[in-house]
Structure formats: structure tokens, C-alpha cells
């Protein structure tokens, strides 16, 4: 295990927050100027907002530039042709072009580690000589190839298998004694389960040691099984098709460290203003010193929040604590965003609770968060249980909520988890 711990870019990963801010600010100023001078869409957007490149000197200054939500990339590709006016180099200099649904054409440039994934895979524990099964798709989407290139650059041996073909994947894992996995977490779990159904003892017959998972939520229960029952080091990160790595977990699994190569913001999706630690908002990202595709303030649509105390791993960067959900499902209560997945988290924390629904209402100028809770057969709603649930609500949603126990069957099947019943006159 110790061999799998360590820093990829120690100087940057451990520098003081002030030094990091000023390094990133300098890179950002350079990037914004380059994008303004080379990308029609960036220039138009900044001119419209009345902001010149000179006005961007810090990450805070990014608030002056409107966000480009990911869904706008579809529109920009339709209106302005492939790359949507965001390509910063001549098209004949590209290495590859990927196609995302929309279609969005994603350019892959020739800069070293164009998607900033090498630090992420190294810090996740991949090392020279590992035999890594890459189950991300190798066509259309960039995921397969860009992970392949980055892991290859670390000296690992790649086995490009892509999605599906479970039987072949299991045989390959066995024959080549594969010890690394890249892909979505549920597929790793299903490979293990299928291997067991075939009569193998996964721990004895297979060599799996380290897995990097992304692309879907990793449930705590699945992570525990992979780590405790199968002794696999499981790390996750936030990676998106358009610009690659955004954040990653270290050995401490204490949230996902912001990439040293990105300006990462957590913002109020309605105003674009940056939020403080613990506040849930949209993840917005700007690749730094990236000339091929310098998208300034790409809105990922993912919701998260960050913490800034130093991590015990020695890295000093801010950490994205978890992906809470998607921007299009949020409701704002007392200035904080709440998401259906947070309500689910509260429900799952109590064996006594089977279902909950939140009604957001208003009393005078104050938002109320009312939790209707249905209890399991035979459980009676006590004051002690009400208090415990309310404490959990505070912990998970960072807001006070009022719990009422309701008769079983009160919350209709398929009802919205969060119902906004506020009237705005
Ligand atoms: Zn850490």
C-alpha cells in the first residue's frame, strides 16, 4: 500500500494556499488573454459583459465573466460549427476529435497531458508496471482514450477492453492477472459478482489491487464491499469529457482535491457568484494554460461543496466533498441549495424511516423546510426519533427542517421528493 501513496507534483500539491492562489491567478490571466485573442465565443461573451482580459487577475475576478453551461456547447456547435467558436488552435493541429451527444465536438490537442489526468491517476495509486483494465469506451466519447494515454504515460500496461463483454473481461483479468481497473464502479462490482457466480474465489484467483472509478455516484455500501471484502484500493475523481480532470481523491479519501491545473469554482447557479466552504453550488471549471480548448468557466451541471482545512495527506488544496446532484434538480431554501439525493441520504440513515418528502413553504419572509416522514411497520414516532432525524437533516442539508410523522401511504408513489409550494406574490 505504501508504494501507492505519494505526490505526483509535490511542490504544487503542498504549496501554501496563498502561493497556490497566486500561481493559479497568473496562469488564469494568461489563459483568459489567450482565449480572448483566439476564441470568437470567449471574446463575444467578454465584450458583451464589458470585461477585457486585463480585468481578470484573480480567480475571484472570474465572476465578471458569464458561465458557459455545458448545454450551451450544443447550441454553440450548431450555430458556429464544430467546436462552437472555442477552439484556440488551427483545426489541422489537433490530435483527435471526439463526439459527445448533441453533437458536441471535443478537440484533443497535442499538449502534454492535455486532460490533466496523469496527476489524478498517480495520486489514485497507479504505478509503473500495473496491468490496468480500461473499461471506458474507446470510441466516440474521449473517456477510453484519454484515460489510456494518461495511465500509459505513468508506465502502466493498458488493456483496452471498453464497455460490456463481461465474459471476455473476466477471462482477461484472470489470464493477465490484471491488478488495476478504470471505469464506472458498478461495472467493477458486476465483474466480481459474475466471477464469483462462475465459482472463482475473487480474492484468491484474481490480482485486483487498485481501481479508479468515475462517471457515476459511488455508493458508500459498494465502496465498503470493494475495499473490505475484496481489498481493492478504490479512488474516485470528477472527470468530464470536454476538459478532463477536475478533482481527485488522495489516499485519505477525504473529499476530492481540486486539480492543480484547473481554476475550480463552486458557484450559485443563479448568479454565478462564488460560494464559501460548505455551501452547495455548481462546479464551474476553467482549464489553466490550455490553448487547444480554453473554455472559460464551463458550468458542469454537477452540484457539490468544498472544505478548505488541510488534508492529512499533506495536500493543501481545497477539497470537493462529494457530488450532491445535478443543477437542474435543485431548490433554494434560505439561500442554500437542496437536492433530492440529500433527502434520500437522511432516509437511508434511519432503519425506522421508509419514505420522506420535503415541502418547502414560506411563512412571512422565512422559508420553511417541512419533512413529511413515513415510518416502517410497527414503529411509532417518538420525540426522540424526531430530534434525531432533525439533527441528521441539519448535518446533511446544512439547514433546519421540521419533521412530522405522517400515516403510511400519505406520500404518493412517484411523488416529487422536494416540492416547492412557496407562493411568490
Ligand atoms: Zn488528501
Task: Explain what you see.
29% of the residues lie in helices and 25% in strands. With 425 residues, it is an alpha/beta fold. The protein has a domain at 336-420: 2-Layer Sandwich (GMP Synthetase, Chain A, domain 3), CATH 3.30.300.30. It is globular. Zinc ion is lined by residues 250, 252, 254, 257, 311, 313, 315.
Task: State the main characteristics.
425 residues, alpha/beta, GMP Synthetase, Chain A, domain 3, nine-stranded mixed sheet, five-stranded mixed sheet, 12 helices, 22 strands, globular, binds zinc ion
User: Approximately what portion of the residues adopt beta-strand conformation?
Assistant: 15-25%
- What's the pLDDT, averaged over the residues? 94
Q: Which CATH first-tier class of one domain would you pick?
A: Alpha Beta
* First-last Cα distance: 60 Å
Strand tally is 22
CATH architecture group name of one domain: 2-Layer Sandwich
The strand line-up of the biggest sheet is: 5-4-6-7-8-9-10-15-14
- Tell me the radius of gyration: 23 Å
Number of helices: 12
Major sheet details? 9 strands, mixed
Low-confidence stretches: none
Percentage of residues assigned to helices: 25-40%
Instruction: Specify the overall morphology.
Output: globular
- The CATH superfamily of one domain turns out to be ANL, C-terminal domain
The ligands found in this model are: zinc ion
CATH topology of one domain: GMP Synthetase, Chain A, domain 3
Amino acid at each position: 500500500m505504501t508504494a501507492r501513496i505519494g505526490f505526483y507534483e509535490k511542490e504544487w500539491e503542498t504549496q501554501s494556499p496563498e502561493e497556490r492562489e497566486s500561481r493559479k491567478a497568473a496562469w488564469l490571466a494568461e489563459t483568459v488573454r489567450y482565449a480572448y485573442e483566439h476564441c470568437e465565443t470567449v471574446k463575444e461573451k467578454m465584450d458583451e459583459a464589458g470585461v477585457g482580459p486585463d480585468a481578470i487577475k484573480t480567480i475571484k475576478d472570474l465572476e465578471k465573466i458569464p458561465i458557459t453551461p455545458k448545454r450551451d456547447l450544443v447550441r454553440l456547435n450548431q450555430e458556429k460549427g464544430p467546436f462552437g467558436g472555442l477552439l484556440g488552435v488551427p483545426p489541422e493541429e489537433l490530435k483527435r476529435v471526439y463526439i459527445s451527444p448533441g453533437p458536441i465536438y471535443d478537440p484533443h490537442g497535442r499538449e502534454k497531458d492535455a486532460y490533466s489526468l496523469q496527476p489524478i491517476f498517480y495520486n489514485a495509486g497507479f504505478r509503473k508496471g500495473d496491468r490496468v483494465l480500461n473499461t471506458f469506451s474507446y470510441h466516440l466519447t474521449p473517456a477510453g482514450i484519454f484515460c489510456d494515454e494518461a495511465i500509459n504515460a505513468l508506465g502502466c500496461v493498458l488493456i483496452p477492453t471498453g464497455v460490456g463483454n463481461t465474459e471476455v473481461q473476466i477471462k482477461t483479468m484472470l489470464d493477465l492477472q490484471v491488478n488495476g481497473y478504470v471505469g464506472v464502479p458498478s461495472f467493477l462490482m458486476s465483474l466480481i459478482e459474475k466471477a464469483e457466480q462462475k465459482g472463482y474465489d475473487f480474492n484468491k484467483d484474481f490480482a485486483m489491487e487498485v481501481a479508479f472509478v468515475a462517471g457515476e455516484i459511488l455508493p458508500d455500501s459498494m465502496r465498503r464491499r470493494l475495499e473490505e471484502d475484496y481489498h481493492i484500493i478504490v479512488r474516485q475523481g470528477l472527470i468530464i469529457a470536454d476538459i478532463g480532470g477536475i478533482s481527485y481523491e488522495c489516499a485519505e479519501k477525504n473529499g476530492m482535491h481540486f486539480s492543480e491545473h484547473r481554476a475550480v469554482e463552486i458557484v450559485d447557479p443563479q448568479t454565478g457568484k462564488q460560494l464559501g466552504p460548505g455551501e452547495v453550488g455548481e462546479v464551474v471549471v476553467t482549464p489553466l494554460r490550455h490553448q487547444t480548448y480554453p473554455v472559460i468557466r464551463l458550468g458542469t451541471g454537477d452540484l457539490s461543496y468544498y472544505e478548505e482545512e488541510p488534508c492529512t495527506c499533506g495536500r493543501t488544496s481545497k477539497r470537493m466533498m462529494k457530488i450532491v446532484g445535478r443543477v437542474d434538480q435543485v431548490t433554494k431554501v434560505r439561500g442554500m441549495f437542496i437536492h433530492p439525493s440529500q433527502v434520500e441520504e437522511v432516509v437511508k440513515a434511519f432503519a425506522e424511516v421508509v419514505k420522506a418528502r420535503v415541502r418547502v413553504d414560506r411563512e412571512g419572509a422565512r422559508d420553511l423546510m417541512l419533512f413529511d416522514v413515513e415510518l416502517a411497520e410497527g414503529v411509532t414516532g417518538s420525540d426522540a426519533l424526531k430530534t434525531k432525524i432533525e439533527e441528521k437533516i441539519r448535518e446533511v442539508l446544512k439547514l433546519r427542517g421540521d419533521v412530522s410523522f405522517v400515516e403510511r401511504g400519505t406520500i404518493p408513489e412517484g411523488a416529487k421528493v422536494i416540492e416547492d409550494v412557496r407562493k411568490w406574490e
